[in-house]
Amino acid sequence: MSALTAPADVAGGEVAAVRLEEDSALIGRFLATVGTAADGAEGADGSGRAAVEDSGAALSLLESMRAALDEVEAQVVMEARRRGLDWRQIARHRGLNSSQAASQRHQRLVTRLEEIRQGVR
């Protein structure tokens, strides 16, 4: 793989990528505590609420991470198209079977992101 250079005009994608990195680190820290905490880890008051709240927070992060990853993917595909890659090439790099599959995946992704922006999802 060649070295990546900064794509032009992808500030939104860059923000999403940073958000993904931060959220991924939080999930990683949560999962690391799972291996070190005793079963049924309890909060300072002995209620177990801290463990439940941490688990809930980690689960909530997954949805925002999924949306951020979708945003990054859409930006990368748009940049690849701008740089001259055709749908067949994009399909090959994405592990998809056809240019049609790559194009349809991108269209579904863009539609989902627009629905999220409009509050439909």
Q: What's this, in brief?
A:
With 121 residues, the chain is mostly helical. Helices cover 73% and strands 0% of the residues.
Number of strands: 0
How big a fraction of the residues is strand?
under 5%
Number of helices: 4
Query: Which percent bin holds the helix content?
Result: over 70%
- Parts with pLDDT < 50 across at least 5 consecutive residues: 5-10
Shape, per Cα inertia axes: elongated
User: How far do the termini sit from each other?
Assistant: 36 Å
Mean pLDDT: 82
Search tags:
mainly alpha; 4 helices; 121 residues; elongated
Please tell me about this protein's structure.
The protein has four helices and no strands. It starts with 10 loop residues before the first helix and ends with a helix. The chain is elongated. Helix 1 packs antiparallel against helix 2 (49-82) and helix 2 packs across helix 4. It is an all-alpha fold.
Task: Please describe the topology of this protein.
Layout: H1 11-36, H2 49-82, H3 87-94, H4 99-118
